[in-house]
Design goal:
Strands 2-7-1-8-9 form a five-stranded parallel beta sheet, with helices on both faces. A four-stranded mixed beta sheet has the order 4-3-6-5. Strand 5 (69-75) and strand 6 form a beta hairpin. The protein is α/β, with parallel strands linked by helices. It is built from eight helices and nine strands. It is globular and about 65 Å long. The protein starts with 6 loop residues before the first strand and ends with a helix.
Amino acid sequence: MMPKGLLIVVSGPSGAGKGTICKELLKEIDLNISISATTREPRTGEVDGKNYFFISKNEFKEMLLRNEFLEYAEVYGNYYGTPKKYVLDMLEEGKDVLLEIDIQGALSVKEIYPDGVFIFILPPSMEELKKRIEKRGSETKEAMLKRLDAAYRELKYVFKYDYGVLNDEVDSAVDNIKAIIKAEKCKVNRKKDIIDNIKEV
């Protein structure tokens, strides 16, 4: 019997570098990125079923009523959600799935799917986080202070995760996540079927 795939959930405060880490991770190991459903209009070049599942607000609300999302959020009047069936089907097929989402979404996923591997990306320091947000050049001073304030609050959730990975150097952070995935695949409770078969023989 094929072992189930791993659901790897990566989150952390804005500016911690989770997007960059996930991009590099996808280049190095065979992972399937989870595709979100959204009610917003596709942007130029975006493809339905590749970048997002583009659906209407009515469809989204019907899916919500049927409890078909692992997590969802409303952002600037549009809805975004992680379709439960899409992710669970891939896991049943033995595929590992990477889910990069915000902290609130990650904690919602943990309630529904506690077997996931939950990784919190930590900035080296708040000073470094501030520098990274400033480097983007797209923030007003007020918006940046709001982000930093949110980051302080979000750091309190780190102990609800399985692992904390410091993003001092991207390569090092990626190596640490690869090591976590390797170790998780060796956990005895993930090899129950194999162990049962050995015992039967």
